[in-house]
Write a structure and sequence with these properties.
Elements (H helix, E strand, L loop, with lengths): L10 E2 L13 E8 L5 E5 L12 E7 L4 E6 L5 E7 L6 E5 L3 E7 L7 E3 L2 H33 L3 H28 L4 H4 L2 H8 L1 H10 L8 H17 L9 E4 L4 E3 L7 E7 L4 H17 L4 E7 L4 H11 L4 E4 L9 H4 L7 E2 L1
Parallel strand pairs: 1-4, 2-8, 12-13, 13-14
Antiparallel strand pairs: 2-5, 3-4, 3-6, 6-7, 8-9, 10-11, 10-14, 12-15
Helix pairs in contact: 1-2, 2-4, 4-5
């Protein structure tokens, strides 16, 4: 949670209803020591995010001697976060329409604590059962892999990499047991993706089918259902690719369907992704070699900053169509439809 992203890339959301209205609502009262009178943001960073994540700010308030308060209403329980203006890191929690209290230290905001939120207290059960494994085993083995790679010791790097994978499996097994014990908890929904990645889709499907039916209307449940049952139908060899329509650098809509009759490489990337930028010269070489044989490339950027995207396109001298996957409220983004978990990724 120490990762910090510039607030300049964060977009205000109109979908988050903070106006007074009928029905249950939430109140967050907080005190952050060493904060003084600074602005605090309520956002959606949660516990982390993948390449297709859209950063948003929902509200902001000025603290008074470290005290602050947020009020509003959420349509469903989900991950939210607070962070300090020009501060480092953020604190994530599952927010529901209830009265909550947050306390922490401005210098270590990610270590704050929250009370009054039932679902988040359930999630803390999992955190307590896995924090030692993550701290003492996963983090140390990951550091050892990097250290071995840096000194060119591939044998030791492979050893710690294998050890790291065993720790990931143990972590996934603990998450599996957690979901079995909390089948009616929203917190369980957010663990199924990791379980599927490590223990396999069949295991995740079995768990999903055991969840309380009341959870299945949650948007996260719908996303997971797509990944478990529908995604392979559109991304496996021999299947029909899902059509999409995005705007190019001149704001002109371009569809995948318009490339019918050509061999098309659909490439997902971003300006801030170093491996993506390193791969661009190889794509350019392939484009020049095969473009006369009905071959084309269609690049889909998941950048949130369109200026940096356009700058990277110009710097890397990419002549083919460049699209940006700017998520719109109420619509699924293309990176999600294609199951993009890491970039660069292409089809």
């Amino acid at each position: 949670m120490k990762k910090h992203n510039s607030l300049l890339a964060v977009l205000l959301s109109v979908a988050f209803n903070l106006s007074a209205q009928h029905g249950p609502a939430f109140t967050i009262n907080g005190y952050i020591s060493n904060l003084s009178n600074k602005k605090i943001y309520l956002g959606n960073k949660g516990i982390g995010y993948g390449p297709s994540f859209q950063l948003k700010l929902y509200d902001s308030v000025f603290s008074k001697d470290g005290h602050f308060s947020f009020k509003g209403k959420v349509d469903e329980i989900n991950f939210y976060s607070i962070e300090i203006e020009n501060g480092k890191g953020w604190f994530a929690f599952l927010l529901e329409n209830a009265e909550a209290k947050i306390t922490g230290n401005a210098d270590r905001i990610w270590t704050a604590s929250v009370t009054g939120l039932k679902e988040d207290s359930i999630r803390r059960i999992l955190i307590r059962s896995t924090e030692r494994l993550i701290r003492d085993s996963l983090n140390s083995s990951s550091d050892s892999v990097q250290q071995a790679v840096n000194r060119g010791d591939t044998a030791t790097a492979r050893h710690f990499s294998a050890l790291n994978q065993s720790y990931f499996k143990e972590l996934a097994l603990r998450k599996y047991k957690f979901v079995l014990a909390h089948k009616s908890s929203v917190a369980s929904l957010f663990e199924l993706e990791d379980i599927a990645k490590v223990l396999g889709k069949d295991t995740a499907i079995d768990l999903y089918q055991q969840l309380d039916p009341g959870l299945l209307s949650h948007n996260k449940a719908k996303d997971i259902a797509y990944q478990l049952w529908e995604l392979d139908k559109h991304t496996q060899v021999g299947s029909y690719a899902r059509d999409f329509n995005l705007k190019d650098r001149n704001s002109i809509p371009v569809s995948l369907h318009s490339y019918k009759g050509k061999y098309v490489l659909v490439d997902f990337w971003a300006s801030w992704c170093a491996p993506c930028r390193a791969e661009n010269p190889n794509l350019l070489a392939a484009y020049k070699k095969y473009r006369d044989n009905k071959f084309d490339i269609l690049s889909v950027s998941i950048d949130q900053d369109s200026a940096k995207w356009l700058q990277a396109v110009q710097q890397d001298r990419l002549p083919w169509k460049q699209l940006i996957d700017a998520k719109q409220e109420g619509k699924q983004d293309v990176a999600f439809l294609y199951g993009i978990q890491a970039i660069p990724m292409n089809f």
